[in-house]
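Appendix B, Record 12. Input sequence as logged:
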Amino acid sequence: MIKSSDDFDSLVEMENSKKQILIVDDDPQYLGLVRNWLKDTYKISAVNSGLQAIKYLGMNKVDLILLDYEMPITSGPQVLEMLRSDDETKSIPVIFLTGKSDKDSVLEVMALKPQGYFLKTIQREELLERLSDFFMS
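Logged structural output:
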């Protein structure tokens, strides 16, 4: 409960210091799930296509992109390529979200040199822990 303007100011400061994460995934259920998991700890924006992500990033700054690897029209690797070729977005860290855990798929993902990848089967606590570790390093 906010008791004074100092409490309110520190609450605003806390909110403003939250890291901004953009989630990009074409599956609305998964997008909603991850958003709900992260919204108390991070500022979350979510879009459901690679092209929407590019458009969003043209007007907004983020600290991290969680990017679905397999999407129709513009795939995660294509989006990453576009981000890396633009001076405004090339330094934004990207972590892929993928449903594939076989060795070839993992090697394919890592060949693109993202900051990491999370399997879509990741549980809430592990995701929060790994994101916390990422932002601490």
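The chain has a mean pLDDT of 87.
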